[in-house]
Batch of 2 targets.
Target 1
Amino acid sequence: MALKIWLDGRLVDESEAKISVFDHGLLYGDGVFEGIRVYNKKVFELDAHIRRLYDSARAIRLQIPMEPDQVKQAVEQTVQANGVVDGYIRLVVTRGVGTLGLNPFNCSRPSVFIIADKIQLYPQETYEKGMKVISATTVRNHPLALPPQIKSLNYLNNILAKIEAIDSNVLEAIMYNYEGYVAEATGDNIFIVRKGVIYTPPVEAGALEGITRAVVIRLAQKEGIQVQEKNLTRYDLYICDECFLTGTAAEVIGVVEIDGRTIGNGSPGPITQLLRRRFFEYAHGQ
Ligand code: PMP
């Protein structure tokens, strides 16, 4: 069934949802976006996503031509128009149509569009058995070049690392920052468990401030499990007891091999499984 796309103030058929070739979102990756889940017809953590969208926009001096509440309504409207029960939303703000030069202030008006569809990021089997990952040689963007907290339309840094993963016949790559500390996966945050304590890199290490990350930290603390933000090295990953990734699309997924080193006993560990279960319950019972 053809989707209804929300584009600049109205719902249009998928075939009519078009963006100009002069849009700087396309010409330069100049824009911001959010990926959001829908569980049981309810939009998951919508306020947090809207906040991050506006923060990303502010950081790149992009004025979203709508109030946050209007964007929220538009998201809800798109979900309803497409009858989405469990699905995934892509909310995008581009710089808009401009001239063939970089200057963003020559662009007339930012475009806002919303797609509500389905997503399956990793095969179901990897959720049960865990996934293998590699360390990418592509270094995560230096925060002084492009702060990784900005969820921008320019994902080439992540795509280059993803290509390394695919070339190595695995689904994900771990990215390190310019100092060699673990940053995140190409589209997910990373956690490890060691002696019952959960560790995750601080966002300053070059990670997106993941909304799933924040939820999982809260759920872990509720279980009485200690969570620490700490700079992690490749060695820390190699010797950990458990490792898992979090993200809107990925949810919570265990990692069972890193650069050929087996993690734990080679299947998702007990804390990973517990948090995966708790996340499912929380998301579906929201
Ligand atoms: N890091 C990157 C680079 C991402 O693109 C994402 C979102 N896919 C995440 C982490 C996870 O963030 P969230 O939980 O908010 O989806």
Note: The longest helix spans residues 270-285.
Target 2
Amino acid sequence: MDVSPKALSNGQRAADLERMAASELDLIVIGGGVTGAGVALDAAGRGLSVGLVEQRDYASGTSSRSSKLLHGGLRYLEQMEFSLVREALAERNLMLNRLCPHLARPVSFVYPLQHRVWERAYVGSGVLLYDGLASLAASPLPHPKHLSQTALLELAPGIDPESAVGGIRYWDAQVDDARHTMMIARTAASLGAAMAPSTRVTGLLEEDGRVGGVEALSLESRRTFGLRAKKVINATGVWSGDLQRMASDGGLTVEASKGIHLVVPKDRIRSDSGLILRTEKSVLFVIPWGEFWIVGTTDTPWTLGRAHPAASRSDIDYLLRWANSVLVDDLTPDDVVGVYAGLRPLLKGESDETSKLSREHAVLESENGLVSIAGGKYTTYRVMAEDAIDVAFPDAPPSRSEDIPLVGAAGYAEAVDAEPRHGVDSEAWQRLLGRYGGLVDEVLAPAEGHRDLLEPVTDDAPYLRAEILYGVTHEGALHLDDMLTRRTRLSIETSDRGVDSVEAVADVMGDVLGWTEGDRDDEVAHYVARVEAERDSQTQWDDRTADAARMGAPDVRTGESE
Ligand code: FAD
């Protein structure tokens, strides 16, 4: 199914909110993470009228803070969760082959072996099974390979020879999660969904004991809207309980578990492959990420602020210690360019009524009709979305999301083979294709008359001014934070954490969004304060003091610490 791409912009957002308020829709989705965006796409693809409200930015919750892997999860095989792994691998392959080949890319991992015989047999058979399950669903990736110690050290000279007698290499996939979620939202909008970020649900509308809509507050205009719909789906991840409490009903119990990641420069670890290591609790990944490595993750319970979870110095030291256990040249805190923390929405204590569709996610319709979907993995968002719509609309036509490529997928293959256009060199062209796919001409067209748009926004990162402009005009960025943290990754890919780019980015954004000088100063001040608070939190040893330090910077949308 071909989709003609629609722009997400400030104007579209305001118009969509009015559209949602004007008449009753089939569905309102609460939450613009990967799950909610996927639900909106699935619903629109089935011909339902749908609106989505997100309190901050697309993917501003967990969906911009993951390990960014599209994977089946090798470690679930140890728990004999074969059907779960198979389902996730099928989704991985679908994204690589059809849904978003422009955004998803193959990534290889090496598992360094410490024991010659039994470990090679044990891990080797797990990896073989993983590959077999992937092959059942048209895997486009190479098969795993056993490596001698010599071959391992040729591939990854940064591994300490004392720590490994050989290795096993296998392939998975990765994606920039925040961009991918935004592209799902854009695809939903292109299919007719009304999309309203910066819009917080503050209450549910009930009629005769049934949920019939939401009360929503625009965090931009401060206006309150009553949005009516036949069904409301709660896709708010770690906030699920808040919404269920508004429905004064029990439901799914979702707890938060914190995971942090470090970003370190590529030249600090000599390797042509990612690494996967077993830790005492789980696994640790060292994942290639452009000019960097992402090292993660941790897994600890979290009951503090959910909007901006803080990484503590203990979290950082934990990751460095594990990474250093196999590296020749130790990483130190000074090598860390960026840090981010996210919260896993974990399902707990499901009751009998829970429609338990897999071990990882669940959909529940409460007595007054609120449908909640939670748990799961980033990789399985499409299946989760389909399940949620099946529960909310049992009579709807079947899901078509398997056949709806995301915007930018069309024209991507042709653009990869084409000569670069619009005055960019081939390196920039290929980089842009990995972010915009076939939409690359739309991104670069404004630069035809304005060559300054081909200048990078800072000397320390490749992002062009044209990308900043496009982020506002077509990708729904409303604040500096949206642009520096999610449309680009300047906040984790520069040692100044984006601060040196704020003025240049604010100039481009402010022109389009009509910022006054006061608005502009306010945006800059919020971003700089956020970076300072994050840096401060990362020097604190425990969660409570780290959280208190992070809370020192107010949220740009609400002006409050939350
Ligand atoms: P969220 O992304 O949190 O979205 C919920 C949204 O609801 C938020 O944007 C929030 O602002 C909004 N919201 C809340 N309350 C309201 C309200 N009142 N009104 C309006 N909006 C509201 N999965 C993988 O497959 N691969 C991985 O590599 C991977 N790595 C991970 C690593 C870490 C450290 C973590 C924490 C998770 C990882 N996951 C991974 C899991 C995956 O990231 C999550 O399962 C997924 O992102 C959850 O998406 P979601 O849409 O359900 O939640």
Note: The two ends are 41 Å apart (CA to CA).
